[in-house]
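Worked example 4.2. Below are the chains of a multi-component assembly; read each line carefully before continuing.
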Amino acid sequence: MTNTTHVHRAAERAARQSYGKLVAYLAARTGDVAAAEDALADAFAAALASWPTRGVPKAPEAWLFAAARRRMIDMARRRYAREAATDQLLLSVEEAAAGMDPADVPDWRLRLMFACAHPAIEAAMRGPLMLQTVLGLDAAAIAAAFLTAPGAMSQRLVRAKRRIRETGIPFRLPDRADLPERLDAVLEAIYAAFGAGWPDPGGLDARRQGLLDEAVWLGHVVVGLLPDEPEGLGLLALMLYAGARRAARRGADGDYVPLSEQDPALWDAAAIDEAERLLQRASSHGRIGRFQLEAAVQSVHAARRISGRTDWHAILELYDGLLDLTGSPVVTVNRAVALGETAGPAAGLAALDELAGDPRLAGYQPYWAARAELLARLSRRAPADAAYAQAILLEPDAAVRRFLEQRRARIRPNFV
Amino acid sequence: MQYMLAVYGDERAAESTPREQMSEIVNAYMAYTKALQDAKVLVGSNRLRPTSAATTVRTVDGQTKVLDGPFAETKEQLGGYYLIDVPDLDVALDWAKRCPAARYGTVEVRPIWVM
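Applying the procedure described above to all two chains together yields the following structure tokens:
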């Protein structure tokens, strides 16, 4: 390994482990998340310039923090000089910076998460904001995960960060009385982080590496803080169930393996056992919610490792409950797939047809893949072929595209 | 940070409020103002005369005109404000929730732009 790759890896590792912690701590006193991010980006650039010749420091996080803090003070100094503000303001920034100890950066990611998921922040932006500030994802990657245009996503992120600073949203944990309500928003955003990491099973994308683990870790933090919140337990269980199948999603040759064809022996049994315990703990509170229901669906899938079969009737029932609770078109797609298993492909397709006019689904790959499969089972070759084509067009993962191409080829043996 | 709690309410509804209930509301505002003073967060506060007393100056086609009436006809009107100094938005929101206007109308919380 060359020295440069070594340094790049050290920097990437530090970035993955420390990014959110550093942003949270740097931004906590001023509320200026954008300034913290800018300063941190400069610190990373300085690391890449300095580490190859001087060596990777023993404590990369402390090194990055010290560099970012210096940068933040410089930036504040210049900004205040330009705006001709009083020395008093600058002094307060320097005092705030001086009060931070680079040797012991506390983990304030949860505070940052509650700030990002504050009711004063537009609901749709809470997940993207957390992905960027806690995990360091760039606007383009977030836009891809949230099915929006990169430029628009970037602008909305800038505005949301400005809003945190200008409205004075605090970086602290909400009072007990406000916690349940505030928690829902945080859970949604953690799940969004998990979802953004999900499409990269090979760990090929450095920006997404560790995203699943980060999200699971954030789930653990929330459960540790609020052990009696069933939805927090449900979310953690859900992420563990899904994460347990990570290795089984690819064959030895890198091919995509759908859930129904996965070998349960490849699932992480310990993670599934932990998920089962968490879900049981959650249900003991008798307060059902979205994440507990989704975790329960995963529990039914996981039961195949023992029973050797999938109880689609149970899954359909759970999706019925989820649909009542959320009314989400994504749930409708999943429910249609379950219906296709219990009542046949025509019933599944009819359920999908109810969504045909929903503009949100035009670019949603699972809708087209589900549609293609149901049409194929009904031997409706031309529309099935068109639906496969649409699903392939929308799928960013080459392995999944290859899988869809194979499925598509089965229904048109006479052509090509 | 300083925040303005802008108090909005339906003036017409207020006009037809029975005297007894009105004095109850006034008492609630007095108690609220005292609570803000006791907590040492109150910077200033004023009640405004209704929009029927408003006069508006506006530039129309390059000409400055004086118009009778308020800036805009709305269902709820600005009826007063509290200026408070608190550590952050959450504390400001807690005070806004305690404001009588949160029961009788709407409270808009806006940070002061420090120049």
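Take a moment to check your reading of the output against the notes. Chain B touches chain A through ten residues (CB under 8 Å). The radius of gyration of chain B is 16 Å.
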